[in-house]
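pasting DMT family transporter for the record, 313 residues
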Amino acid sequence: MAERQNIMNKRAAYAVGGNAVFIGVSLMLLGDFMFALNDAMGKWLVASFSVGQVLFIRSLGAFFVLGPMLMRQPPASLYKVEKPQWQLARVVLATADTGLFYAAVAYLPLADVMTFYMAGPIYVAALSHFLLGERIGWRRWLAVLIGFIGVVIALRPSSAMLTWPSIFGLIGSLSFALTLVSGRMLRSTSDTTLVTWQTLGCLVAGAFLSIGAWSPFNTGELFALLLLGVVACAAHLLITRSLKLAPASMLAPLQYTLLLWAILFGWMFFGDFPDIQTLIGAAVIVLAGLFIFHRGNVKQDVEPLVPKNSSHG
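structre below
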């Protein structure tokens, strides 16, 4: 009888664990979808408003979600933080990441810019070796090199590589990668604190950049600008929760669904479809990134490359 009860308990625990993983995967997919929706909304809005204005009002919108969360934690958690220099660096990098993303999608198709950002985990693998002292074997170094080749293919090796939108996308994706690395240095900081400072950074940068570049808006446009912040913040929360329910190594590759949504939304809303060169570059980047995830899990000497609360959107 005791043995039978044991078996039943194990089955129940397995079922609960399986349900948690399923919910975690579902939340990650929903969070990625919302980030892609945020990116498409951002591209639409920067066609009518300056990047600074979008950043400023978007950040105000985020506080509709952050406000109730901030009320549940002591005020000291915002200013008594670990490693202040890394906190400041993360705010600057996250602000650059978001601002440069919007600056790039103002001129380039959504899928093209997303292709640059999909190389973020590949940059993280390389940067973590130098900044965090994480060991990377020759196979992953080869995958990093192949991933860089994919970026060059997507950039189109020509004078187009020197256009400002492409440079915005490239520097923004590097800022995104450095934001991920800095997030790994601040693991003990609460999610709410990280996102709040990140949002305040965008608010200040947006206020500064919108000087002399402020356009009037109607009620519907104001709602859309505020909704942009709500959607991005909600996506952060969904992804954070998913990482607590399912293994990060399982969830990490799901971020590449962002590229699929970017292609679909770009085609549906803007009539853009990536050309063959961008698709080839994207495929090379995704395959290299997936191999890096796989080798990280096999060797178990590098943590999966999906940190909490990091996104360009």
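Residues 27-299 form one domain.
The chain has one domain: 27-299.
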